[in-house]
Design a protein that fits this description.
With 474 residues, the chain is α/β, with parallel strands linked by helices. It contains 16 helices and 21 strands. Helix content is 36%, strand content 21%.
Length: 474
């Protein structure tokens, strides 16, 4: 029986040489090609790019062959290219979509197949299901044209996607002011596609850019995976202190996610970064517009929405939910718990490069260090917010586990009263202090994720422990 290719919250990912093989990539590409043809895009162009993982450029070339075999044309990136740059190229080139060969922040054993729509954003859940349904069981059903032949026939055109993207960045951020600021910025590119970008954009002025983990090394030394959270960023945090840097900017493997370390080498968690970016747009730039957030992201955004009078929309987890909502509402900002943030006047795709530039601009415009920006945020909100998450494997049927959670129906968590339950994606229990606890099932493995946010630092562990009990883990 053929291996079943499943598209999760952000495309398909698998273990290289086990299930992520050239033949299975061809099958996935055939499914996407058939989907585009159903949409009426025959003869249109598709952008194909890749990251720096093992064989990524060859998997990208293989994908291009299949797209051309189905009567489509391909803009193929000349080298490893950040996900947001690929997304921007879709719009700039008026392409009908994109395929990005990347496993983002997954371990080095993995690779992936991300698909994007004509807006450069994630394809909605219904579209992903249709692509899955169109994937043939056998590689024998795949249509292909050899790459050399496709290039000769100008059906595949190699291109540098960076130029148009950089021009748009210049419209959004005053890069010269950051160059003139005299900062020392440490950049951890996590061996990925973000390498060289901040140096290219901000080099040549008083600001000093120091990059680490900026070469190609698909084994990702000094980290478990290129995900911008601890312990993967511990080397970068230590280097921040050693180099007396003002800030640490971290981009994940494909540079669509952003992490921040402060001037003391302390990590600023992703929820706080999202709230800081929203505050920057609202308070410093004076922008107004809708905010889109996933359930697993911070309640600080709801509070900022109240303060500044802007709507806040909550979606299920994943940019396949965030991107369509951003387009629908022309949102000012959208984001999720994993450190992915998207912005208006760009594309509805996470952008770790633009997020990092906005953070630096926040520092320039206020004259504040990262720790002082956090104080500014908490002063505005009337207190600090604390977050943590635990992942736990579980056995048995998911449905039975869901029934158990509903049956347990907690009245308090960590000693705080439960004030409501939201079941848009998992089970989110609202708490009396404005915080929450969320139980979610992974879409790709037998793991439950327990998240919480509260204004009571001392209650974080107790809330998570109670969450594990509600889920039947403890």
């Amino acid at each position: 029986m053929a291996y079943k290719i499943k598209f999760g919250t952000d495309g398909w990912r698998g273990v290289i040489a086990e299930d992520y093989t050239f033949d299975n990539v061809r099958r996935a590409a055939q499914g996407f090609s058939s989907y585009l043809l159903e949409k009426g895009f025959a003869g249109r162009w598709v952008v194909v790019g890749h990251d720096k993982r093992f064989h990524s450029e060859n998997f990208a070339a293989t994908t291009a062959e299949v797209l051309v075999g189905n009567g489509l044309n391909v803009y193929l990136t000349e080298g490893a290219t950040p996900t947001p740059v690929i997304a921007f190229a879709v719009v700039e080139k008026k392409a009908c979509g994109a395929v990005n060969i990347t496993a983002s922040h997954n371990p080095p054993t993995d690779n992936g197949f991300k698909v994007r729509d004509p807006n450069g954003g994630a394809i909605d859940p219904e579209g992903l299901l249709r692509i899955e349904a169109l994937i043939p069981d056998s590689v024998e059903s795949v249509k292909r044209v050899a790459l050399d032949e496709a290039v000769r026939g100008k059906k595949v055109v190699y291109f540098d996607a960076s130029e148009g993207y950089i021009e748009n960045l210049k419209k959004l951020v005053d890069l010269q002011k950051i160059r003139d600021a005299g900062f020392t910025v440490l950049v951890d590119a996590m061996w990925g596609n973000g390498a060289g970008w901040f140096t290219k954009l901000l080099g040549g002025g008083k600001t000093k850019i120091i990059e680490i983990h900026n070469e190609r090394n698909p084994s990702f030394p000094e980290m478990k995976r290129p995900e911008p959270i601890r312990p993967n960023i511990d080397v970068g945090l230590k280097a921040t202190v050693a180099n007396h840097a003002d800030v640490l900017l971290i981009t994940d493997g494909d540079a669509d996610r952003c992490g921040i370390g402060d001037e003391n080498g302390e990590f600023i968690n992703q929820l706080r970064v999202y709230a800081l970016l929203a505050l920057y747009l609202l308070e410093v730039r004076g922008e107004r517009g809708d905010i889109v957030k996933t359930l697993s992201t911070t309640g600080m955004l709801n509070k900022l929405g109240e303060i500044y009078g802007v709507p806040v929309h909550e979606t299920g987890v994943g940019f396949k939910y965030v991107a369509p909502k951003m387009i629908e509402t022309n949102a000012m900002i959208g984001g999720e718990e994993s450190g992915g943030y998207a912005f208006r006047n760009n594309v509805p795709e996470r952008d770790g490069i633009l997020a990092g530039l906005y953070f630096l601009d926040f520092m320039v415009r206020t004259g504040k260090k990262p720790t002082e920006l956090l104080k500014m945020l908490f002063d505005k909100l009337g207190g600090e917010y604390f977050y943590d998450r635990v992942d736990s494997p579980f056995s048995g049927e998911r449905k039975a586990r869901e029934e158990l959670i509903l049956k347990n129906n907690p009245q308090t968590l960590g000693g705080l009263k439960v004030t409501g339950l939201v079941t848009v994606d998992g089970f989110q229990f609202k708490l009396e202090d404005g915080g929450w606890m969320l139980i979610r099932f992974s879409g790709t493995e037998p793991i439950m994720r327990i998240y919480c946010e509260t204004m009571h630092k001392e209650k974080v562990k107790a809330i998570l422990d109670d969450g594990l009990k509600v889920a039947g883990i403890q």
